[in-house]
Amino acid sequence: MKLTVWQRLDLIARQITPTLLTLALVMVGMVPLHLPDLAPVVPWLALIAVYYWSVHRPDLMPAAAVFAVGLFHDLAAGTALGVGVLVLLLVHVAVVSQRRFFMSRSFMVIWFGFAVIALGACTLSWLLNALLAGTLVDARPAAFQFMTTVAAYPPLAWLFVQVQRSMLRT
Amino acid sequence: MKRPMRPLEDLTTPVRAWLHRFAFLLLVGGAFALMLVGKADGILVERARTTVVDAVAPILDAASRPVATVADVLREGRELAVLRAQNAALRKENARLKHWQLVARRLEAENAALAQLLDMAPEPQTDYVTGRVIADSGGAFVRSVLINAGTNHGIAKGQAALTGEGLAGRVAEVGRTSGRVLLITDINSRIPVVIESTRQRGILAGDNSDRPKLVYLPEEAEVAVGQRIVTSGHGGVFPPGLPVGEIVKAGEHGVRVRPFADWNRMEYLRVVDYGMPGILMTREDDYSARIAAATGAPR
Fold this sequence. Notes:
The complex is a heterodimer of chains A (about 170) and B (about 300).
Chain A: H1 5-28, H2 45-56, H3 63-77, H4 83-97, H5 99-102, H6 107-133, H7 140-167
Helix pairs in contact in A: 1-2, 1-3, 2-4, 2-6, 2-7, 3-4, 4-6, 6-7
Chain B: H1 7-40, H2 43-81, H3 83-118, E1 127-137, E2 144-147, E3 160-162, E4 167-174, E5 179-183, E6 190-195, E7 201-205, E8 213-215, E9 228-231, E10 243-251, E11 254-259, E12 268-273, H4 283-295
Antiparallel strand pairs in B: 1-2, 1-12, 2-5, 3-4, 3-12, 4-5, 6-7, 6-9, 7-8, 8-11, 9-10, 10-11
Pfam families (chain A): MreD
Membrane topology (chain A): Multi-pass membrane protein
InterPro entries (chain A): Cell_shape_determining_MreD (IPR007227)
């Protein structure tokens, strides 16, 4: 089957939608909300996005895209370079390797799986940050971030489901 | 579970899996390499950061405006409820401040006269550049914000950033149209300060909590809760005497300082351009020097 230019463009657009959406979410997470004490515990939106797409459509969120998302986050947000990249990559591979477990499970199971993975991701990110800072970093913000991230999963997953249904039917 | 029939995919799956694994290992190696490079904190990393931030700054700027407006409206709504009480309090404070103004004017005149008597070198000219906070980055491990002002607006690395209440942080990276301000609560922040009343020096060291520590005080330092902390001006670019915070805890487990800056309503930051400390510069000299630096001409 030969594709016209427009069909090909359309296909590419569909292919990169999840990655672009994730990059946009990284920026959304950086917008100052001016709410008391929220900034340090703002949910880790990139983690949610990477997990969701790795579970449901890993073909649209390849490891290279995960790398790019992590790099963009680390550079733009000013966090320790490489930490976000590594944690997101490990989350991606953990999910993809357990894909059979996630296949056609109920939402609650997938959410629970996310909580487990997010716990690991936040712990690892805390450890790496402490290691790179050369001192013990306060773990409480990381713990709160873990909670807000798990809490933010359902609404974001709903958003992703809408995107998946409307744009990525193929 | 029923799998759809895809003969071609079944055939290429092992090869693809192997390729995937190899690519994945390469990417993980890349992540570790990035960590090493980032830890070394070279000029390259900084340039990459500023390039990325410069690129996304317009988007963040646009996105942060409506959010700031909504936050403002909400705050105004809350303040409307306490308007009368606030008005009365402000009237009282205004009367008190008028008195202070009189005192300050008298002291300023006296100070100028005495300085003239002593032939004291004048303080360098201080300029301010105001930037809007467009991103509140970092999450759990970094305390920094982005502002929409960069080298194009005359901001340079190392300058002090202030809120209306006091010192907020230091410009850590600066691009053309954006800058990153490392807040004084960040774990990497070290600010030379003095206790205002006793003039004893110390270093204000952030640890990502809301209450940075005051360290390296002299042993005989008299520390008490409520003492004001101001910048000392040692070590370069910060002007002395900028208000930083007040001591809220002084005990066995170290001295903690509550910054005056209100992190929750930090919408604009003023960046202080102090010029070069110790070098006499008139305004014109400063300007021509900056032009020369910008165009690369020898001074």
